[in-house]
Amino acid sequence: MGKIKNLKQEKKNSDRVMIPIIIALSILVPVAVALLILFPEVFSADLGIDRGTLPAFHAVLNGTTAALLLLGLFFIMQKRVEAHRAVMLGAFGLSAVFLVSYVISKVNADPIPFGGEGFIRSLYFFILISHILLSVPVLPLAMLAIYRGWTQEYSKHKKIVYYTFPIWLYVAVTGVLVYIFMRPYY
């Protein structure tokens, strides 16, 4: 009985630390990215990075993340928990690398406008806007899902993943699509 009480207290103490960190990052990161996008003249610097290479790198990161997410789903359906954990942490790691690289690209170069017209233009902006809007909740949802899985709170993990997985997968796939649409203009 005392062991169960101690375990519950440890999880409660862990939540007191981790939940505020997840909340803080979930607010700070989107605000920082929004500031970079809205005020490029304030937050620009020539970092000497070739602007043509980063978009392709971002597409590779997003595509690989999508593949890892699907692989993670496959592994968990096969009850291969350790393999699932490894590929999901890999997907999160690639998403983190993408985020840092994306911020660097926004600081390093002026935005490039989309030149398509007609239906393609409407389709591009639908994909882009939905990608941007849905990318905001991915960070807190993914961090919370990883945290609940890591602490072996599997029922909470499953509830969060029910929403996290399709949103995260959509954001990863549409990240690749945005690159494909923009490729002629880089």
Protein described:
The chain has 186 residues and is mostly helical. The protein has one domain (2-43, 51-185). 82% of the residues lie in helices and 0% in strands. The protein contains five helices and no strands. The chain has helices spanning 2-38, 53-77, 81-108, 118-150, 154-182. α1 (2-38) packs antiparallel against α4 and α4 (118-150) packs antiparallel against α5 (154-182). The longest helix has 37 residues, at 2-38. It is globular. The termini are far apart.
Structure at a glance:
The chain has 186 residues and is mainly alpha-helical. The chain is 82% helix and 0% strand. It has one domain (2-43, 51-185).
Task: Describe the structure using short key phrases.
single chain, 186 residues, mainly alpha, 5 helices, 0% strand
